[in-house]
Amino acid sequence: MEQYCFYLEYDGKRTVSHSYESPAAVINSEGIRNAIHSFAEKNSLKVDSQESLTDGNYRVFFVKRSLFGGGREFVYYVKHE
Q1: With 78 labelled, which of 23, 24, 38, 66 sits at a CA distance of 20 to 30 A?
Q2: pLDDT tens, 58-75?
Q3: Which residues sit opposite 2 in a β-bridge?
Q4: pTM of the entire structure?
Q5: How much is the pLDDT for 81?
Q6: CB crowding 10-26: b at 16 or more within 10 Å, else e
Q7: What's the sign of the alpha-carbon dihedral 72, 50, 34, 21?
Q8: Distance of alpha carbon 49 from its chain centroid, rounded?
Q9: The organism sits in which domain of life (predicted)?
Q10: How many helices and strands (H and E) does the chain possess?
Q11: 28 and 3 in contact (C-beta within 8 Å)?
């Protein structure tokens, strides 16, 4: 099992400036795809896209749908431990 730490970068309203001090979640999983989907399911989010960064980590874009039809975007930096 590998460990992935999820750090909130953007919450749909503002950029989070202290986002790398402590992870929003730590997921133990067999791979990055499983970790992303586990995190999305746990937080009722839909995976929009992901990008691999040069340092071997990831940036993942999620959408959370509201009852009134609009969506809110969340961006997480995912660090592979």
Answers
A1: 66
A2: 999 999 987 777 788 999
A3: 29
A4: 0.88
A5: 85
A6: bbeeeeeeebeeebbbe
A7: negative
A8: 10
A9: Bacteria
A10: 1, 5
A11: yes
